[in-house]
Amino acid sequence: MIVNRLRTKPITEVLRFIRVETQGRSGNHVNLDELEAIRLDLEGRIKQGFKGTIGVITSFREQQQRAEKYFREHMRDYLRLKEEQKLSIWFVGDVQGEERDIVYYTFVEDRMNSEGGLKSIYPIPDGTADTIKSLKMQRLNVGFSRARDTMVFVHSMPLEDYMDTRLGDALRFYWTLLKDTKRSDHFIVEEKTFDSPKEKELYQLLLQTDFFQKNRERMHIIPQFDIGRYIAQEYKKYIPKYRVDFLVTLAEGGRERSLILEYDGLEYHTKDPSVVRSLEDFREEYLEYDIRRQLELESYGYRFLRINKFSLAPVKEGQTKVDVLNDLMIRYFDRQEV
């Protein structure tokens, strides 16, 4: 799963850990208790209306082969799920080029079963295969990038017990991501919220900035905010029904500072797009409506950060759009009085 991919669900629905208390049904690189946990969780999702595609990635070929048989014998609608929802079960080394909406990971090994042998599958820290080019490292990286939407880790040991391989590092990363993000989650319920692909891109860039990562617990980002309606209710004054691309608030010292963040496309925000070849041209060609609207909203104490393709363009070697946006966010919030 791409961590920075736009989410339409809370992080707790995107990353899940299922701890399995094994009943001794394991051995020879097989763990039936983990397969049963996957079956129960998946059948619950199907019952609730889940229609997405499904994948299961196992750490051993024996578990992959046993899973095919186990699900065929015990899972409701197994054949239908294979046909209609592309249910597939792979050994982690055979999963090149495949993606599914939800992917379950079964690691097999438990404390009662010393035959798990995950060291034979994944790199050992500081071992000979502990390089980005090694087959074992590629296997780990590819396996953990197959989920489009949801990753479910099914494990029979405490996560710290996996730390003797790089698998443990990956699990710790996702566990930390889940724990940290859960405190202040930012996700979009509907991608249709955005008026344009550029607004969606701007939102994704914003979530990647250091400024956001540092302040995420104090920040609130509201896309397509009906600011005209809010001001009319708050100040009991008439104002047009303005809507802004994003209202960004930052809590500090018991107060909230606000910033209106907007993406301006050439064709919708300039008098003559054909003459706009630089940021200076853009400023000269802004529509009167945009200028009047901004001045009116600024009269209520709001600051504007207007983004366009010129203002977001990197100007230094090695700089990215994320870096540029990060610098702009710092500059605009630092200019505001607390």
What's this entry about, in short?
With 338 residues, the chain is of the alpha/beta class. The chain has helices at residues 11-14, 32-47, 61-74, 78-84, 135-143, 166-183, 197-208, 210-215, 227-235, 266-269, 279-285, 288-298, 321-334, and strands at 15-19, 26-27, 30-31, 54-58, 88-91, 100-106, 147-155, 219-225, 244-252, 255-263, 303-307. It has two domains: 11-183, Rossmann fold (3-Layer(aba) Sandwich), CATH 3.40.50.300; 191-334.
What does this structure look like?
This protein has helices at 11-14, 32-47, 61-74, 78-84, 135-143, 166-183, 197-208, 210-215, 227-235, 266-269, 279-285, 288-298, 321-334, and strands at residues 15-19, 26-27, 30-31, 54-58, 88-91, 100-106, 147-155, 219-225, 244-252, 255-263, 303-307. The relative contact order is 0.10. The chain is α/β, with parallel strands linked by helices. A hairpin with a 2-residue loop joins strand 9 and strand 10.
